[in-house]
Structures are given as structure tokens and as C-alpha cells.
Amino acid sequence: MNLSDFLNQSCATLNHSSQLSELILSIAEAGKQIAALVAKGKLAGVSQQLNSINVQGEAQMQLDISSHDIFIDCLSSTKVVFGAVSEELASPHYFSDHIPDAPYLVCFDPLDGSSNIALDGVVGSIFSILPAPPNAVRSDEIFLQQGIGQIAAGYVLYGPATMLVISAGAGTHAFTLDPDTKVFELTHPDLKIPAHYPEFAINASRQRFWEAPMQQYIADCLAGEEGVRQCNFNMRWMASMVADIHRILMRGGVFLYPKDHQVTDRAGRLRLLYEVSPMGMLIEQAGGKASTARASVLDLQPLQIHQRVPAILGSINEVDLIEQYHQS
Ligand code: F6P
Fold first, then answer.
1. H-helix or E-strand spanning residue 52
2. How does the cofactor attach, per the note (predicted)?
């Protein structure tokens, strides 16, 4: 089944408006265009680092900006989006020509993990679709909604194959882009994350900045069969959230970007609205769990549009255990 048929069917079953299907198809179109740019590598002429710094204090690449522009153009073609928050913009973008009372807000990271671009490593785009409040006015506040209220979320992974993974509240489903027909085909319906898989993903170079319970959890995993876990763990770190979360959706394990004391004004590295919250929805819709180690990610009340939070996402038993380490 292709994406368009799948969306028509799901929107009817879930009582979503056909406008949602139109919106997700526009994001899929953005994904195809970005995939084409990423696939050209240096030949696209957009892989150079710019002198500009984004709102996160990170150096921007031309590809970040081009991907952002592609997203805005594709969202703009639908006329159903009131406004959008992008990782690349300090303030939201509003679509002035869209229908009055346009029903949706979109938060997106147009090119996540872009430090991998120079290495031809896997990168992705992440998005979250929220309801626009009735009579919405242009303000950051309209985007500050709990993740539990997301209408849909997903990512596009630009890897050996381009894949689109989405949830509109009834499971998490993965589509593969057929390079011949340029159509996303449903290849992995209803993903299920095993409750336990002995593999963790963390940037271990930051160990000295973690809180004591996180230090203890990782030490216990590393102790393997001889330690309290009595189990040998494997470790993977792609430095690209889309790639790491995709692996966990496919075979289980846990992804961690925990609270980090190095920069005291940051609770974590990853952004709530367009990284942790949409990934949290995908993980929970696949039977996993998304936590900050102390609270459910999807219950967090955002305070700022670019807010960072700790992120512990993956196999439910492992995330439960990590929460227990933080309670004791
Ligand atoms: O900004 C996000 C991101 O690139 C994620 O995609 C990735 O998981 C993380 O940062 C990588 O962090 P680090 O540079 O610490 O490995």
C-alpha cells in the first residue's frame, strides 16, 4: 500500500480530516526533495558550513537552510498550517495566505544530525503536528502544548534507503521510498519495540557530566554478565537521533541523552518540541516508553519553543528501570 492510500484509509478510520492527509503528504514531498539533495552529497553544492549560527548556538550548514526552505515551501502549498517552529528560526514562521482558522501547527527539525553530512552519514528530518487553538493569534504560546496532544508525528530518514516513519495515534508505521517510482510504500506496518533488548545508545564522552543515577545505570550495563544486570550489553551511537531511534524502532534497546551538568542552563541537549516529543510519540505508539528519567516526555508542559530536555527513549523495561535508578 502506498502512503497516500494508507493516509486516506487511516484518516477515515481515525476520524481525522482529509486535510491531515494533505499535510503529511506535503511533508513526505519535502522529505523526497531533501533526500535528493542529501544523495547528491558535495555535488549539490550545499554541504559547506556557513558563518551563521542558529538559535541553538550551532554552526549552520547550507543544507540546513535549504532543507528548512523546502519544508516551508511544502507546508505552504497546503494552506492548512497556521504557523511552524523550525530549529533554524528563532521565532515561529506564519503562513499569512493560509485558510482562516488553519487547523494545524507544525514543529520541525529540517535536518537533524547534520554534523554527519560531511561524512556521508545518516541524517533525517523530524516533525510534530499539533492542533492550532481556535482563533489562534501569532505567539510562541500557541506552540507550547504537551506532546500527548500531538495529532501526528514522524521523521524521514536519509540512509541507504529513504524511509518515512509516522504515527497519527494508531501505531507507528514505516514506509520506504521506491527510488524508481518516487512513491513511499508501506514496508513496516505497526512496528513493535521489544520490551527488552540489551543495547544502549549514549554519547559516553559526556559521562563525567551525568547525574549519579545515570552513571550507575551505565556502569551496571558495562559490567555485563558479571555485574548486577547479569547480561552483556552492546552499545551503538550514530550521533544522529533519527538513525539511533530508527534502530530502536526496528530492534529495541534504549537511546539516552540525559541531564548533563556541563552547561547549567541546559536540562539536556535535545529539543522538546521538534525532537524529543515527536520521537516520544513514535516510540510509545510502538509499545516503548519515552521519559526524562523522572517524568513522561509526553506529559511535559513546554515553557519555550526551543526548550531542551533530557531524553530516555526505547524498550519499556529498560526505561522503567532507568526511572527506578533515578527514584532511589
Ligand atoms: O541536535 C541533535 C543531534 O545531532 C542528534 O541528532 C544527536 O542524537 C545528537 O545531537 C548528537 O550529539 P553529540 O554531538 O553529543 O554526539
1. strand 49-53
2. Binds 2 magnesium ions per subunit.
